[in-house]
Amino acid sequence: MNTLRAGTLLSFQPILGMRDSSPLELETKNRVIDSVGKLLAENGFEMADYPIVEPTELFVKKSGGDIGGRLYSFVDPGGNRVSLRPEFTSSVIRSFLLEGSPNAGVRRQYAGPVFRYSDGKYTNELKQFTQIGCELIGSDSLQSDAQILSLALQAVSLTDTPSVTVRMGNVGLIRSLLTGHGLNETICFFVLSNLATLRAGAMSSGEIVKRATDLGLVSDLQGQANRNQQLSDKEYIESHMSENLSGNTGRRSRSDIINRLVAKENTKVDSKSLSKAIDQLTLFLQIAEGELSLGSSLDLGTDFGKDVQEKINELISIREGVGDFASLEVRYILDFSTSRGLTYYSGLIFDISLDVTGDTVVGGGGRYDGLVRMLGGSEDVPAVGFAINVDSLLSSVTQSSSIGKR
Amino acid sequence: MTSEIAPMIVAIPSDGALYESTLKFLDSCGLKVSRKNSRRYTAKIPFMNGVSVLFQRGADITGKVEDANADLGILGYDRFLEIRREDGPATSLIENLGFGSCLLAIGVPDSWIDVSSVADLADVSGEFRGKGETIRIATKFPRLVERFLLKNGVSHFSLVESSGTLEVAPEMGFADIIVDITATGTTMRENHLKLIHGGTVIESEACLIGNTESLLRPDIHSIIEDFVSTIKAYMGSSQYQK
Known about the structure:
By secondary structure, chain A is α+β, with helices and mostly antiparallel strands.
């Protein structure tokens, strides 16, 4: 019997990056989930559940970023392209829209497995891990931002973690800085996705402008002048590019192509504006990033505009609103390159890590006021939330025996 | 296996562009392959005892190494990534052998003058969706292509898997765009297709792979070591040096 069992089981190992939980590990994990769930319930967050499998499109277009390339995506037996969920927020908002919920005051919490494929780059990461988190839909107040960050930290502290580092930024601030130079949403997204590279000095601003030019996002000044006078005119495109359009266009019509080209040309920016924007952004990062202690302030002077200064003040205000914790030492660092691998964030964004370098991230969150509209809502609805990676947190906590006993 | 088969087996391409270039590369390394005639699937390397060469289709080499029907293999790195099992026994020993370089790249009809980057393609996939259609993408590399597209925000598409000539697919109407191997883009251009910025799924060269269990087998360990070190020595002392 033993021989048979050993022979059978040895053939099947868990998939790399996925693992079994022993009864003790499961009990510990459930204690964390229960205690965080209780904390969130006390703050008005109702537990809800969502499908593990969702349409792939829900996550790719809307979550975007790094997550898109890490989806467990497949075509189901019915021919639909679906994915195992890599996070909950998109499902929560989809559900919010289907419920036709009122705009204000929806508080949801969730817990369950999420799936993110990882290759050699992320060898220590689990591909399936348990997330617990919450979403507050309908409030745009700084108090809500502070409450979400505070709850996230309280959730971490329930595992007896002694200290954490919060890296916080504001995606809206960077957008504000860039749109001040006339950059549109597409080019803002491009710069945001290259922010970490820029900040690390891995690419110069000139290289980023070149990359944007290669991607067709930028036109030179002469091109811009031509465009303003002529290219926006459909007739100009048809007459000057008819040779290119004479070939097989497949299932796309000539007017599909021309209309899109006109729209695309009208959203291009000139390389000089982009270059100036990136230079100013680099300067901003040099001045603004760094440790943020309680009671500190940051005066940017007049170089960056009132809106940027206001958003910095808001971040400081959020940090003040969170206050301090008796059992958890928290170090705050302003870091505007945090993206969490997702593109839907619009304001506050934060990562919580167990080390100062930010390598062991155990959770994070932020504000995503545009996601409701992105997923088909008729208008933007403010929303903010956080999620904790329970497995990552537990694997980092050595004294897990007392978890959740408080 | 017959007694003619030496204990250590190296699988190399029997077809495609990598057939000739692999033989030439091994020759340059001092590992000239002696094949009695072109119909035979096995050959020897006279200057290295204990090695048999197995000619296989490029698409089958990863599987042969994973199944331990071959101990080493030479093939395109793109093919290896497409077919290998992540936790399987085949591992890359040398990723870039310095020949067989090519791109796995997206080709779109050159009449799509509004499409110059992969970001445009994400937009166009939305245009198809708006019309109740799905953009169809012909490729021999569905696994690499799907992941690449999802990573780049193209979420609504269908893959047309084809082993034939892909370049004609848009002209023939069974796909809208293709993702295929190209060295210079010439064949694509001749078929009225163009490359787009950010549309390279992977840049690839020929690579050397090995079965991890074979690498530990006492009877062939030293032969494998000799084979690999001969290749490395050549690469280190030649134009192939990286």
